[in-house]
Amino acid sequence: MFDKILIANRGEIALRIHRACHEMGIATVAVHSTVDADAMHVRLADESVCIGPPSATESYLNIPAIITAATITNADAIHPGYGFLSENANFAAIVEEHGIVFIGPTPDQIALMGDKIASKAKVASLGIPVVPGSNGAVSSSPEALLLADEIGYPVLVKASAGGGGRGMKVVRSADALDTSLKQARSEAKAAFGDDTVYIEKYLERPRHIEIQVLGDGSGKVIHLGERDCSLQRRNQKILEEAGSPGINDSQRDEIGAKVCKALSDLNYRNAGTVEFLYENGEFYFIEMNTRLQVEHPITEMITGVDVVREQIRLAAGTPLSLTQADVTFTGHAMECRINAETPDTFVPCPGKITDYHPPGGPNVRVDSGLYSGYTVLPHYDSLISKLIVYGTTRNECLMRLRRALEEYVIGGIETTIPLHQTIVENADFVNGDYDIHWLERLVAERAAGG
């Protein structure tokens, strides 16, 4: 096992990884920008190294600085968390070239799944269902028109290297296709340095279902069930639950088995999540995230499996501690992503926390680096806390979540807690009757005074 792990991240996920390491008797190194010196993960780590100024490009994305920090502290391994460099194949390769263990998949696996066109083709060849669409990049408007006519409108133009909704355009008629194609290319080039786009069928009201997996790198892969991540705004997840109220046990077992078979054929290593759109009883692959997910806690709650601990064990060459038969699903869990944003307009609200009181009680978990007097910074993502609750039934879980949201106090800034309170009181959500466009419709109704 490792003696020391450098955590190449910040905020709640850095704190989460630190806690897992200390429970395993592993020392930690926190890296931080100049403005993050007072962050909770820095305070609690065994060692800390400042790696640059506030800009993420000059600090948390600064590969030479992170490698130097790992070298001078004699870290055995680097855990990238999520975001930043977690899915950067070049970073993973550089880490390994320096004789340091990268806690994640192989560089080749990260590169493969980071290319949406290549990953879609690969998983289709391995038996995973995909959304009908182009077999590769679309290079011209005439080609796009032929494909769209064949697939049937509406279609979705998507950036191959994209994420977070950038370089993505819904097209409902042939008249709009050329303009949308140019806009998607322009956005993709600006955001990712790559204007490659492809086309696929646009599903009107699907759910977003993802399967959590763990692999040992030699063909053994298990899944930890599904998460429903359909509550999204601008393709960003807001609230997740496990399991999904939209699929049953047999559907989960079927798609889970297909995912495990495909990733076993790839000798997949470490943790990953395969994401699908689900509509009318059918699953359609959209992408694979080769890293830890923000929403991993709800999987931990219903399975009892510490996903971060398993990541570390697998990276150290220890076999999977579970077989698929060992994995059981009990109860229900939900996670609210609490952002430092106005709940109606979603404008970021950095500032000083004047009061802080997290909720408590049985089966309530808060993953956050907040404390009274802490300043939420404007330089990074606005996610400041994750509220996770568990119940023996979905209704018990929902009632506990309502109570926890009422208790949660974050003073000094605006947060999205009121939005979550609106969601959990809505009849559609209570009934589990929602899709990936539902929250956008709710936000639009609220803005219109409905």
CATH topology-level name of the largest domain: D-amino Acid Aminotransferase, Chain A, domain 1
- What's the number of structural domains? 3
Q: How large is the count of helical segments? A: 15
What is the helix fraction of residues, given as a range?
A: 25-40%
Rough outline: globular
CATH homologous superfamily designation of the largest domain: ATP-grasp fold, B domain
Highest CATH level, the class of the largest domain: Alpha Beta
From the N-terminal CA to the C-terminal CA, the straight-line distance is: 56 Å
- Could you tell me the strand content as a percent range? 25-35%
The average pLDDT value, as a whole number, equals 95
Largest sheet: 8 strands, antiparallel
The CATH architecture of the largest domain comes to 2-Layer Sandwich
Total number of beta strands: 20
Radius of gyration: 21 Å
List unreliable stretches of 5+ residues. none
Order of the strands making up the biggest sheet: 13-12-9-10-11-14-19-17
Determine the structural class based on helices, strands and strand pairing.
alpha+beta
Can you give me a brief rundown of this structure?
This protein has 450 residues and is of the alpha+beta class. It is built from 15 helices and 20 strands. Strand 4, helix 4 and strand 5 form a beta-alpha-beta unit.
Would you spell out the secondary-structure blueprint of this structure?
Elements: E1 4-7, H1 11-23, E2 27-33, H2 40-44, E3 47-52, H3 63-72, E4 77-79, H4 89-97, E5 101-102, H5 107-114, H6 116-125, H7 141-151, E6 155-159, E7 168-171, H8 177-192, E8 197-201, E9 207-216, E10 221-233, E11 236-242, H9 249-265, E12 269-279, E13 282-289, H10 296-303, H11 307-315, E14 332-339, E15 351-352, E16 355-357, E17 364-368, E18 375-376, E19 383-391, H12 394-407, E20 409-411, H13 417-425, H14 427-430, H15 438-447
Parallel strand pairs: 1-2, 1-4, 2-3, 4-5
Antiparallel strand pairs: 6-7, 6-8, 9-10, 9-12, 10-11, 11-14, 12-13, 14-19, 15-18, 16-20, 17-19
